[in-house]
Amino acid sequence: MLRFNRYQHLKQITQKCVSSIHVKTDKCTPLFLSRTFALTELRKSWCSTHSLLGDKNIILMGLPGAGKTTVGKIVGQKLGRCVIDVDDDILEKTWNMSVSEKLQDVGNEQFLEEEGKAVLNFSASGSVISLTGSNPMHDASMWHLKKNGIIVYLDVPLMDVISRLKLMKINRIVGQNSGTSMKELLKFRKQYYKKWYDARVLCESGASPEVIADKVLNEVKRYQDVDSETFISTRHVCPKDCEQKLSTKFFSEAVTEGLASDGGLFVPEKEFPKLSCGEWKNLVGATYVERAQILLERCIHPADIPAARLGEMIETAYGENFACSKIAPVRHLSGNQFILELFHGPTGSFKDLSLQLMPHIFAHCIPPSCNYMILVATSGDTGSAVLNGFSRLSKNEKQRIAVITFFPENGVSDFQKAQIVGSQRENAWAVGVKSDFDFCQTAIKRIFKDSDFTGFLTVEYGTILSSANSINWGRLLPQVVYHASAYLDLVSQGFISFGSPVDVCIPTGNFGNILAAVYAKMMGIPIRKFICASNQNHVLTDFIKTGHYDLRERKLAQTFSPSIDILKSSNLERHLHLMANKDGQLMTKLFNQLENHHHFQIEKILVEKLQQDFLADWCSEGECLAAINSTYNASGYILDPHTAVAKVVADRMQDKTCPVIVSSTAHYSKFAPAIMQALKIKEINQTSSSQLYLLGSYNALPPLHEALLERTKQQEKMEYQVCSADINALKSHVEKLIQNQLIGRFSE
């Protein structure tokens, strides 16, 4: 309901605002201003509608035994509000009998109906209401309550609840005598809770009711304060004595705009939310989906995406399209080395972990008044992952959102190219560029900064440009989850206890994956060292060792690990901004130097700060193949070339005193020729499918990726477009595809 109301209001405001603005054809600023104005007005309205300072209720929801009644009394006392317990103050007074007597008298189904009717006939304002455990199973009564309050979910560990119920000897739980175990009964009940709550309180084991009550008040305050979680550009400079924060953006705006207007990248204005040790421990036994929802709820304000809608997106993203139910499992390789398998998604790379979710986030955040064209540069794996992710949107969403992937025509593997081209759909297209990835990425950034061109597209075609590379915050944020989840899996499997440090080793090109691990540490995961693994394009390794980022006379080398064949590392700017205490002026200076003079040097104090957390080294092509061979011979496990790069560097850099998690960023099936060369298999000149079948006959781990195998069986060759290394040529393709495909197709 919240999302519906927000967007109905947004539509009205946008229409009213757009109709009153005179748009100049050489600039797109007016339409962007109208969008910003609409969101601002929307948030004001939402805040006033849901303000709890007046007559709105605080409604506590949770399992039987979660402590709703006790916590409700404390919250009511702190706020000076009336406290209403649904069991005692509504049901028993309505029925003139105890709840347990009523349940025994009418049975489970009839009880739920009569309980719901009693709540529908009840109204209150300015109160603290403690629900029964079964109230959320009756839709009509929950909608009735939700209209006049905020629902706070007390999320108590299941085993804690079961222990409490045994001590309380409660006999009034719906379904209690059905023969189902209490654990299964409560797990079943939780599915009803997740669609109603506005805010969640993670209740740590052993936490006192007073502590939980304070958490409730903090969550209510956060829910109310819709302007508290904003984003700034890494190049943002706040003038002295500046009261108005004109350059801040909300999460929705950061996602839809992609790149800041000054060329910087969006980052949270405040620190990352941090979970306590007890809250993390609650997640040790959780599924990947459950971990994702809790972590992302902390990072995305419910005014941008309500918790229930976010949960739906996460379940859709990490559903049947992943080959492994654990989504991102951790496998023990040898000694104290572990492999984080990030390749079980539909396109076989770590990009799926964010790009199966990001399109749904993007579709939710955009206003209804414009079409959006997503521009993406890929060094290999991003392309097919973006095309696959955006092609999974609903029919209505695909009518307003399309994506173009630009890839280096001769800079990706044959399989990657076939996968990118074969992933084209009615709203997703691929364009080969006769250059390298760095040109593609730089060209897209320049297109975004060209206000004449973007303004023309907005006015002429009603189409706004955005991005889905890791420069987009909505793309980077979901990657934090798998780094946290990997650590929790090691705890769950008994390899470490919570609080013990680990190192992470990540093959790195654009710095997004390793930066996500930094953010996981900021949220409370005890990562000791971040080991940056480079291939022959080792500009990042050199920078971490010297503080000098130098592209002069450095040419991009094509390697067996093409996804990290990158020289201009975009997300490094975000990390430098963090290290430099959010000095936007310094970021502007450094990256202008890189753009104009192809190098920059950071101060010694920043180099030392960087080296406190980061180690770095690089791997030659020969070492990469040797690592694939030796790992297979030792353990029967086949590394892809990117993971092999990380393995070589991890072997060289880790000091053996704590575990190291090596990020496996792609499935070896995507690089069959390199794998066959590494394993000294002579029959390389075969079709892709026969190569994979041959590798499959080795019965290695991990097994063949079925989705990738199916891709090789597709005989039909799809057409795609190729353009020269000229930014104007890219612009021409963008406009042509908008004109002929997006506008032409969906205006019929």
Mean pLDDT: 88
Instruction: Tell me the overall shape.
Output: globular
Binned strand content: 5-15%
- Per DSSP E runs of 2 or more residues, the count of β-strands stands at 20
**In angstroms, what separates the terminal alpha carbons?**
32 Å
How are the strands of the largest sheet arranged?
8-9-19-14-15-18
What does this structure look like?
- The protein is of the alpha/beta class and 748 residues long.
- The chain is 49% helix and 13% strand.
- The protein has 34 helices and 20 strands.
- A 6-stranded mixed beta sheet has the order 8-9-19-14-15-18, sandwiched between helices.
- The radius of gyration is 27 Å and the shape is globular.
- It starts with a helix and ends with a helix.
- Residues 1-39 and 41-53 have low confidence and may be disordered.
- Keywords: Pyridoxal phosphate.
- Residues 247-318 form the Threonine synthase N-terminal domain.
Please outline the helices and strands.
Blueprint: H1 2-19, H2 29-50, E1 57-61, H3 68-79, E2 82-85, H4 86-95, H5 99-106, H6 108-120, E3 127-130, H7 139-146, E4 149-155, H8 158-168, H9 182-193, E5 199-202, H10 209-224, E6 231-233, H11 251-257, E7 266-268, H12 277-282, H13 288-299, H14 307-317, E8 330-334, E9 337-341, H15 352-355, H16 358-365, E10 371-377, H17 381-391, H18 395-398, E11 401-408, H19 414-422, E12 428-433, H20 437-449, H21 451-461, E13 463-467, H22 473-476, H23 479-492, E14 502-507, H24 512-522, E15 527-534, H25 539-546, E16 548-550, H26 572-579, H27 584-597, E17 599-601, H28 604-613, E18 614-618, H29 621-635, H30 641-653, E19 660-664, H31 672-678, H32 688-696, H33 706-713, E20 721-723, H34 727-746
Parallel strand pairs: 1-3, 1-4, 2-3, 4-5, 9-19, 10-11, 10-13, 11-12, 12-20, 14-15, 14-19, 15-18
Antiparallel strand pairs: 6-7, 8-9, 16-17
